[in-house]
Specification:
- By secondary structure, this protein is of the alpha+beta class.
- It is about 25% helix and about 20% strand.
- Strand 5 and strand 6 (about 155-160) form a beta hairpin.
Length: about 180
Amino acid sequence: MESQPASIGRRTYLKALGVGALAVGGFAGTAAAHPSGLKGELAEVRSATAKYNNLKKALADGYVQVTPFFQGQGYHYARFDLIGTVDRTKPQALTYGQGGDGQPVLGSIEYLVPKAGPYATSPPDLFAHDDPDHDSGNHEHWEVVDLGENGAPFLVWALHVWVHVHNPAGYFYHSNPHSLFNQ
């Protein structure tokens, strides 16, 4: 999603710089709280969602099963009240694989952000881009998914983040070859 550079005047640039400085000030607290970049942010997400290793806790918090078993992803559980919010520590969906004992195993969390408003043309930027292994799947790989029903489209940006089960394709790859997620 590359944007074409625009030709702008000096005054427009300086105004934008001033607005940008104000915006950066609003986010400085968040950035300062996570100085370790991508690895720290992934650890934050893993910690915030660790309780969902127990599916009963996910159900108690309002997650409901929304898909059958999908190859490479497992079962999806979603919280519809979170769709439309953008908070790295509160994913809209969780994916569970099937353990050898038949028990669910939390694999990834998934963000579902409506492709509208500020995200009509590009998804939110949730994670740092400081991983030197950028080309190995350790960068955000958003996909557009239609969650609409009865012929009414509802397009969302979808991003899987494999923070609970290792994915050799990378944290942000949409599917996982691990046997837990492939039947």
